[in-house]
Design goal:
globular; 16 helices; Growth Hormone, Chain: A; mainly alpha; 418 residues
Length: 418
């Protein structure tokens, strides 16, 4: 298929996927290091773990708010400027986090973490760019390839925690700021890749192919997005499934470094366990995409819910410090999240019209981020008061609720594929 301007859509889709894969490799490294050490830096600055989860909450909230703002930019101007801006803001946030370590300022850490969430927002929104030009029966596969691309940087990043920290400390920097230097570099490189290579813009080309009148300005208000989602039951299920699964993943994952640290684990061990978790999140995503396209979106969401339940059981039973049970539990936590994220994202894209997709996708990430922020904040309080095992019990209820959504989805009359 070619556009009126003579563009080969299939060729452009391949170029788009390659560009997204390259950017995700860099961006994934940047995002993962911030997730791994934010709680540790907060504990060092405060001298207590009671509020150690707050910077992660700020990062998640920043990601949520920025996701919708980026979506509004992409609605009118395309994917390229929105994704590049998100990673650029994330790089600035990582630099502010470095400054917070030097100044022992918790306020600066919160500001930096909030801005750093922009990189997470761009990282998440990238997956939807892969679906703009994809055939309907290949959307989940295309989306999953971008999710999978995060594996390289996201696995490499946590394993560089120790070396990066030692290198910066040898230069006189305080503990736990080195990984944020890596985060700034990764986010900057991702922004550059988008600016240089994401041309022509896949979203704008998709609108040309669909003969959408460019003179009509899409409605990007929250009220309109709510009406679109509320009128489509399976879109509602998709948003709720992503939100619940992501909250389970974030709440358990964000407190795991502290659980390991309190048991005597060093940064190398913490980085390894987080890397195993990230392998579960991203490495098998293409298989999830193929399964979602061939077997349907809903069965994969159900499988993800079951895997999440198994993960919190193993993690909750694990003692403080490194253990096989905790490592396997964190791997399954990532794998269950992967099932739900790929299938639900594809289901959401299937369920809404082309002209509304960017803002609905952004609003979905806003809702997901707010739910996860609540989970991250609650996780710190739960662990500080009742312990890590209790946190996993609470997460187990959310994982079960994800599976129960399927009962509602199967009764809906949405024309979107199940």
């Amino acid at each position: 298929m070619t556009t009126e301007a003579g563009l080969d859509v299939a060729k452009l889709q391949r170029r788009t996927i390659v560009t997204l894969v390259i950017a995700q490799a860099f961006g994934g490294a940047g995002v993962s290091v911030g997730i791994s050490v934010a709680t540790l830096l907060a504990e060092r600055i405060l001298g207590s773990s009671d509020l150690a989860g707050v910077p992660q909450t700020a990062q998640v909230l920043g990601s949520a708010v920025v996701a919708f703002l980026l979506a509004r930019i992409m609605t009118t101007r395309g994917r390229r400027p929105g994704l590049a801006l998100g990673f650029a803001l994330g790089a600035v946030g990582a630099v502010v986090c470095v400054l917070s370590g030097f100044l022992s300022s918790f306020v600066l850490l919160l500001l930096g973490a909030t801005l750093f969430g922009s990189a997470t927002a761009a990282n998440n929104q990238s997956r939807y760019a892969a679906t703009d030009l994809a055939a309907p029966n290949k959307r989940a596969t295309a989306l999953s390839l971008v999710v999978w691309a995060s594996t390289v940087g996201a696995v490499l990043g946590p394993n560089l925690l120790g070396p990066a920290d030692r290198l910066t400390m040898s230069m006189g920097a305080p503990e736990f700021v080195g990984p944020f230097v890596l985060g700034a570099i990764g986010a900057t490189l991702a922004a550059i890749v988008f600016l240089v290579r994401l041309r022509p813009d896949p979203l704008l080309v998709a609108r040309q192919v669909a003969s959408v009148d460019p003179r009509i300005r899409p409605n990007s208000s929250i009220r309109h997005v709510y009406r679109v989602v509320a009128s489509r039951p399976r879109a509602t299920v998709a948003v709720l499934a992503i939100a619940l699964a992501h909250t389970v993943m974030v709440s358990v994952m964000v407190m795991t470094p502290l659980h390991l640290h309190h048991g005597g684990a060093g940064l190398e061990v913490i980085g390894f366990v987080i890397s195993v978790h990230i392998v579960g999140m991203f490495a098998f995503a293409p298989l999830m995409g193929i399964a979602a396209d061939r077997l349907g979106r809903l069965p994969l969401i159900g499988l993800g819910s079951a895997i999440l339940l198994a993960s919190v059981v193993l993690s909750g039973l694990a003692p403080a410090g490194p253990s096989v049970g905790l490592t396997v539990g964190l791997f399954l936590l990532g794998l269950g999240w992967s099932c739900c994220m790929v299938a639900s994202s594809a289901l959401l894209t299937d369920s809404v019209p082309l002209e509304d997709r960017p803002t609905v996708q952004g609003a979905s990430d806003l809702a997901v981020g707010c739910a996860a922020a609540f989970g991250a904040a609650g996780a710190g309080l739960i662990v500080g008061t009742w312990g890590y095992a209790t946190l996993n019990v609470a997460a187990g209820f959310l994982a079960a609720a994800t599976g129960l959504l399927l009962l509602f989805a199967r009764r809906s009359s949405d024309p979107s594929r199940s």
